């Protein structure tokens, strides 16, 4: 009868042990990480990917902020330099009889208000307002370009002889072309420069309006946006496109027109 003999030690992994003509194979075993460890490894991998994504987002945000600050600073400087040139031309056109003071910037350097001290008997308490495109703000700049807004200079002042009427002059300019088919043969065109066409809301004009309208008609080359005469303050307001003010000579001609309009509006009173 066979006896069972216990082995004094456990066979190592990979050993082959024989007991009485019986062969036992001890299979190798490998330690497997627990489920919690696998979960931590997976979470750790996802955490590294998230950190990389956040890092790229932060880089993009910082780059966008830096670009926005550079854009804002550059165009604030551009607008201020442009408005400063206009004010210097206006002051130089006064020929020592005027001084620009009290500069106040508004709306992200897209609007400048200033006071013009004039030693003139025609104007008192003159004020200048320069409206520029909002270049420092890209969205507003794009909207203003889409709406075809103009950069303008507005002159407001009280008059020594206030007008006894209220008048708003709004200038419009239309242009067009023929819609017919063009001919291959050259045609002799006769170009005629007509006089200004005036559309009015009154059939009978007061006598004092005729000198004002004649003065405006004689300065047809100046691109006025609007002119207003009022019996209350401000008595005179004129808005002109800024593109017409290119140098001191243009500013001097503009101030001369303002004096002529003021004189024509009060011609009956002095």
Describe what you observe in this structure.
- The protein has a domain at 60-173 and 199-269.
- With 270 residues, the chain is an alpha+beta fold.
- Strands 3-4-5-6-9-8-7 form a seven-stranded antiparallel sheet, with helices on one face. Strands 1-2 form a two-stranded antiparallel ribbon.
- Helix content is 36%, strand content 21%.
- Strand 4 and strand 5 (123-131) form a beta hairpin.
Can you give keywords for this protein?
9 strands, extended, 270 residues, alpha+beta, 7-stranded antiparallel β-sheet, two-stranded antiparallel sheet
Give the gist of this structure.
The chain has 270 residues and is of the alpha+beta class.
Tell me the layout of helices and strands.
Blueprint: E1 16-19, E2 22-25, H1 35-93, E3 98-106, E4 111-118, E5 123-131, H2 138-146, E6 152-159, E7 167-170, H3 209-218, E8 224-229, E9 236-241, H4 248-265
Helix pairs in contact: 1-4, 3-4
Low-confidence stretches: 13-21, 23-27, 40-46
Spatial order of the strands forming the largest sheet: 3-4-5-6-9-8-7
Taken as a percent bin, the fraction of beta residues is: 15-25%
Q: Compute the average pLDDT.
A: 76
What shape does the CA trace take?
Answer: extended
Number of strands: 9
Radius of gyration over all CA atoms, rounded: 42 Å
């Amino acid at each position: 009868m066979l006896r069972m003999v216990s082995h004094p030690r456990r066979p190592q992994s990979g050993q082959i042990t024989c007991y009485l003509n019986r062969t036992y194979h001890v299979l190798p075993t490998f330690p497997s990480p627990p489920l919690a460890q696998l979960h931590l490894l997976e979470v750790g991998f996802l955490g590294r990917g998230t950190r990389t994504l956040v890092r790229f987002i932060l880089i993009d945000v910082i780059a966008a902020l830096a670009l926005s600050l550079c854009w804002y600073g550059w165009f604030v400087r551009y607008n201020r330099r442009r408005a400063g040139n206009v004010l210097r031309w206006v002051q130089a056109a006064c020929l020592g009889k005027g001084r620009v003071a009290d500069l106040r910037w508004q709306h992200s350097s897209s609007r400048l208000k200033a006071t013009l001290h004039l030693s003139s008997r025609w104007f008192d308490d003159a004020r200048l307002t320069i409206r520029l495109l909002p270049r420092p703000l890209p969205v507003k700049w794009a909207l203003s370009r889409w709406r075809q807004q103009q950069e303008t200079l507005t002159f407001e002042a009280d008059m020594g002889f206030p007008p006894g009427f209220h008048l708003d002059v709004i200038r419009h300019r239309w242009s067009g072309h023929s819609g017919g088919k063009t001919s291959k043969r050259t045609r002799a065109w006769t170009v005629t420069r007509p006089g200004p066409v005036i559309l009015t809301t009154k059939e009978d004009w007061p006598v004092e309006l005729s000198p004002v309208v004649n003065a405006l008609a004689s300065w047809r080359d100046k691109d006025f946006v609007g002119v207003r005469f009022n019996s209350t303050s401000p008595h005179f307001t004129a808005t002109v496109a800024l593109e017409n003010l290119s140098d001191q000579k243009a500013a001097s001609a503009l101030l001369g027109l303002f004096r002529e309009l003021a004189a024509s509006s009060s011609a009956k009173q002095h």
